[in-house]
Predict the structure of ABC transporter permease.
Amino acid sequence: MNQFIVLLQKEMTESIRNGKWIWLPIVLIIIGISQPLTSYYMPQILEMAGNIPDGATIDIPTPSGEEVLMGTLSQFGMIGTLLFVLAVMSVIAQERQNGSLTLVMVRPISALQYIGSKYVAQLVLLLVAFFLSYGFTWYYTNLLFSDVAWTVIISSFIVYSLWIVFVVAVTIFTGTVVKNNGGIAGASILFLGAISLLTSLLPRFMEWSPGNLRAAASMVLLEGVWSKDVWMVVSCTVALSVLFFALAVWRFKRFESYNG
């Protein structure tokens, strides 16, 4: 346990030194608050854009707070996933390239402790960044549109956060298989994109898919409760995340044995 704490502290320190705790929350906050601000000022934006006939009026129905937040979750789709992968992709590859991985593994450290420290540290970073972004978005949504209960926000946050849990598990596993950052990012994004695409193309057969988490979080926003479909997606995502984490530990054990 002591080794795990030391490794976790090392990972958190490295995340601070390389600026992840600065640029990632800022970028996610900008992406998040852009949705309520754009929705609120859309008539003015269209008027400034021009090409509107004289005498024409712009009448855009005012969305509810829940609808604005649903749009925010859509904003976090591909762009958010790309940022999550980019933030995690180098956690193993960088230590392989600079040789520090060999120095770490000569100590009495297990593969579970090593992969676990990487996973927990990156997960804390991404969840805190997403929480800050979602919190600012909720504030501006309540300010500009209708109020959304904080209990609903927390529930939808928990549901969508499982996508981050899944993305981190997939990316770290890929990092134990692929050695360079570009390959890790490409393989991870390709796999996650395929999951999302298949979920859209085959909804009947992919009801369990993690690609349905955004829809599940949106359902929680609208209904305020976790339906049977939401629980199914949540359960399957947790199971798949545990599976990819276990595969990462197993794969890293093989790497450790090979280099030992």
User: Anything to note?
Assistant: The two ends are 23 Å apart (CA to CA). Residues 111-144 form the longest helix (34 residues). The chain is about 80% helix and 0% strand. Residues 2-259 form one domain.
